[in-house]
Design a protein that fits this description.
The complex is a heterodimer. By secondary structure, chain A is mainly alpha-helical. Chain A folds into 2 domains: about 55 residues, no CATH class; about 160 residues, Ferritin, core subunit, four-helix bundle (Ferritin, Up-down Bundle). Chain A is about 60% helix and about 0% strand. A two-stranded antiparallel ribbon of chain A has the order 1-2. The longest helix of chain A is centred in the C-terminal third of the chain and has 29 residues. Chain B has one domain: Up-down Bundle (Ferritin). Helices cover about 60% and strands about 0% of the residues of chain B. In chain B, strands 1-2 form a two-stranded parallel sheet. The chains are: A mainly alpha, B mainly alpha. At the A-B interface, helix 6, helix 7, helix 8, strand 2 and helix 10 of A face helix 1, helix 2, helix 4, helix 5 and helix 6 of B.
Chain lengths: ~260, ~240
């Protein structure tokens, strides 16, 4: 990552950004980078400066903490799964290593952006009180929980986008995380389909099909922009619902996440 | 050497269905209040009401939210035309599973294209861009690698385009719709990548995703320059918000 290029770009978008970066001026920032901050710490250092400049509204802080909670959940989940011996077949390791890496990066980025306002990590129960007792011993159960978490993540970020419109840079970051979660969901759904032999599971969500049901509630919506698209271009209802992913409200997401607390 | 005219596809497909669809659309538009909001939002947020070709051959996307919708419509036209061709002339050695997957994606892109066409026709009938003439002469549709390579390019470009445009959208309704579509494009991108290089990290590769775990968000000018070689019609995004 070229951190200075990003700073330049922020400046281009917002000419006053350097001024708004308070005492964390560009020079100061470069000094900090120069003074032997480990390369891995750079994203966090950068994010904490972004925080000072942009994450000031209470609404944005709430949304970022909501996102952080989900990312904590995903990060812990993949760390445990990637460490569990005999769970993930060697052929699929590269995929889950990559997914786990992104979730760790998302946690670091959000924690950096929130600074002292970041919520602490809750304790998770990935068996969901025994509902997924074999989540780290049985690959199909793991894939089921994984795809549900990724699809929930996609729906959660989508539901919060409107709340970040007053913070254009935060909105863009949220969108950039959102599409990464969608890439994850796509590949995990493919693995789940292969592992279970259920060809009805595709990389995209058909109607409101999927388990747990709460994760897919409302995905069968066919009305977009106030217009019922049934029959559009002669396509099936299945295709129309697949072509649009639907949002979840914060309460809906917290109810799903609550299964793992 | 396959050149494809979207307008031909449109007229062929639209023929009977489109009349019905448009009528359906307009009828629901008259009933649903949400679409009224959409339309009002569009007018309110758009300061420049004129879409004039800069010259005889250039299509200007316009400004404000309508400009961004036209931008999305242009990209969806390109993707839909591409996958229509892919399904019509399958590459050598295509498997049944690949045919199913690519047909699904074609359907999604056609739905996106026709959705934007209907939405723009209702919200900004004088500002909607026309059907674009595409040029796929550089793509060898008989080659799996060429087709999937182009598909990956179009999908990754689509994701970066929507991610880059999101913060310029003034209407929360439009932003949500863009969000509903971009994640489907990201699902496509990952699925296509996994056909090219199965079981690798390429579905969300380190060249696409940065070290903060963020996907690309690219400015419209860069996107339009990247896709222009595949579109005969010259597209101008000069008046898009930036």
């Amino acid at each position: 990552m070229d951190i200075f290029k990003i700073l330049d770009e922020i400046q281009k978008i917002d000419g006053d950004s350097v001024g708004r970066l308070e005492h964390a001026t560009r020079r100061h920032f470069m000094n900090r980078i120069g003074s032997k901050i480990a390369a891995v710490a750079v994203p966090t250092a950068f994010a904490s400066i972004v925080n000072k400049a942009y994450a000031q509204s209470a609404g944005a802080v709430d949304i970022l903490n909501f996102a952080l909670t989900l990312e904590y959940l995903e990060d812990d989940f993949y760390q445990a799964a990637n460490a569990a011996s005999g769970l993930i077949p060697s052929t699929d390791k590269a995929i889950f290593t990559q997914i786990g890496k992104h979730e760790t990066q998302h946690v670091a980025f959000l924690k950096g952006a929130l600074g002292a306002k970041a919520v602490t990590k809750p304790a998770f129960d990935f068996t969901a009180k025994g509902n997924f007792a074999t989540v780290f011993t049985d690959y199909n159960t793991f894939l089921t929980v994984s795809h549900a978490l990724e699809d929930t993540g996609v729906r959660a970020y989508k539901g919060q986008a409107g709340g970040l419109m007053a913070d254009p840079d935060l909105l863009q970051y949220a969108l950039q995380v959102h599409s990464v979660e969608a890439r994850h969901a796509s590949i995990v759904r493919k693995l789940l389909s292969a592992a279970t032999g259920n060809t009805a599971i595709k990389s995209w969500i058909t109607n409101a099909e999927g388990a747990p049901a709460a994760v897919y509630a409302g995905e069968d919506n066919k009305t977009q922009g106030g217009v019922n698209l049934t029959g559009l271009a002669g396509k099936s209802d299945a295709a129309i619902t697949e072509a649009f992913d639907e949002p979840l409200t914060k309460d809906q997401v917290l109810a799903i996440a609550g299964l793992f607390l | 050497m396959i050149k494809n005219k979207i307008s031909q596809n449109d007229s062929e497909k639209d023929g009977q269905k489109s009349v019905l669809n448009r009528r359906l659309f307009l009828r629901s538009a008259g009933v649903a209040t949400a679409v009224g909001t959409l339309a009002i939002g569009a007018c309110k947020n758009d300061d420049d009401d004129v879409v004039t070709p800069v010259d005889g051959t250039t299509v200007d996307l316009g400004s404000g939210d309508v400009g961004i919708l036209n931008y999305a419509y242009a990209l969806e036209q390109l993707e839909a035309a591409f996958y229509e061709q892919v399904v019509k002339t399958p590459y050598t050695g295509i498997t049944a599973a690949e045919t199913t997957l690519l047909t699904d994606i074609r359907d999604h892109e056609v739905i996106h294209r026709d959705f934007f066409k209907a939405a723009l026709t209702a919200a900004a009938p004088t500002q909607i861009i026309p059907s674009l003439e595409v040029d796929f002469s550089k793509i060898d549709f008989t080659s799996r690698a060429a087709v999937l390579g182009a598909a990956k390019l179009f999908e990754d470009t689509g994701v970066a385009a929507y991610n880059g445009a999101g913060k310029f959208i003034k209407s929360a309704d439009y932003l949500l719709i863009a969000g509903k579509i971009v994640s489907v494009e990201a699902r496509h991108a990952a699925a296509i990548s996994d056909l090219l290089t199965p079981k690798t990290a390429d579905f969300a590769s380190d060249t696409q995703i940065d070290s903060n775990g963020l996907d690309k968000a690219t400015a419209s000018a860069t996107i339009l320059a990247a896709v222009q070689p595949y579109v005969k019609t010259k597209i101008s995004g000069a008046n898009l918000p930036k």
